[in-house]
Amino acid sequence: MTALYFDLDGTLVHHEISFEEMFERARHEANVSDHDGLHDEYVTSFLDYFGECHPEPYRAALDDLCNDFSLDTDGETFADALIEVELSHTDLVDGAHELLASFADDPDHELGILTNGAGHVQRAKLETHGLDSYFDAVVVSCEVGVGKPESGIFEVAKEKLSGDGFVFVADDVERDVLPAQRAGFTGVLLSESVDSRADNCVEELSAVRTLLA
C-alpha cells in the first residue's frame, strides 16, 4: 500500500484574494480603525508565531496587535473575523474532488494531508470544501510542533499512515517537494513549469491519478 499525502494551500485549495486584502476585509468586519503599519506589524508577528508552530498564530499575533495599537477590539474577535474571511475566499483547485474520489475505494492507497498552518483553520478548509472525508490522516504543523521544510513533519506523517511507500504532492519545490524527497518520499510537483529536481512534475491534479495508476 502507498501512503499518498497532499499539501493543502496551493495544491488542493487556493486563495481568491491576497492576504493583505483578507486582513483589510477582516479589519472592517471587526470595526477596527486603520493605523499606519498595522498590516505590516501583523504579518511580522504572525510569521514569528507561525514559525514557532504556535497552536493559534492568528489570535496570538492579533492579541499583540490589539495591545500595541490599543485597538478597540480583542485578538480573538479580530482573529475570528480574519479566519472567516480566509475561509470564504478559499476555493478548490480544479479537479481536486474528482482526483480524491478516484482514490476513495482504492485498496492500494491511503490518503493524507500534510500542511503548514493552524490546525483549526486547515481542518476548517477541508470541511468547508467537503474534503475531510477523503483523508485517513491530517498532519498540520501547528498541531505537531514542526513544519515544512523541516524533516520532522515528514517523519510524523510516516507514523500516521502505514504505507510501504510514501508520496507527497505539492506546489512548492523548495519548501515541499525537495524536503519530502530527502525524507524518503517520492515527490510530485504540481506546477506549470518542469523542475528536474522533482521526482515527478504534473501540470494538473488529474495527472496524479495517471502517474500512480
What would you note in describing this structure?
It holds the Pfam family Hydrolase. GO terms for molecular function: metal ion binding; phosphatase activity. This is Putative hydrolase of the HAD superfamily. With 213 residues, the chain is an alpha/beta fold. It folds into 2 domains: 2-14 and 91-211, 3-Layer(aba) Sandwich (Rossmann fold), CATH 3.40.50.1000; 19-88. Helices cover 46% and strands 17% of the residues. The protein is built from 10 helices and 8 strands. The protein has helices at residues 19-29, 38-51, 57-69, 75-88, 96-102, 119-128, 141-144, 151-160, 173-182, 206-211, and strands at 2-6, 13-15, 90-92, 109-115, 137-140, 165-170, 186-190, 200-202. The strands form 2 sheets. The protein has a 6-stranded parallel β-sheet, sandwiched between helices. Helix 9 (173-182) links the parallel strand 6 (165-170) and strand 7. Helix 1 (19-29) crosses helix 4, helix 2 runs antiparallel to helix 3 (57-69) and helix 3 crosses helix 4 (75-88). The radius of gyration is 18 Å and the shape is elongated. The mean pLDDT is 96.
Task: Give me the secondary-structure topology.
Elements (H helix, E strand, L loop, with lengths): L1 E5 L6 E3 L3 H11 L8 H14 L5 H13 L5 H14 L1 E3 L3 H7 L6 E7 L3 H10 L8 E4 H4 L6 H10 L4 E6 L2 H10 L3 E5 L9 E3 L3 H6 L2
Parallel strand pairs: 1-4, 1-6, 4-5, 6-7, 7-8
Antiparallel strand pairs: 2-3
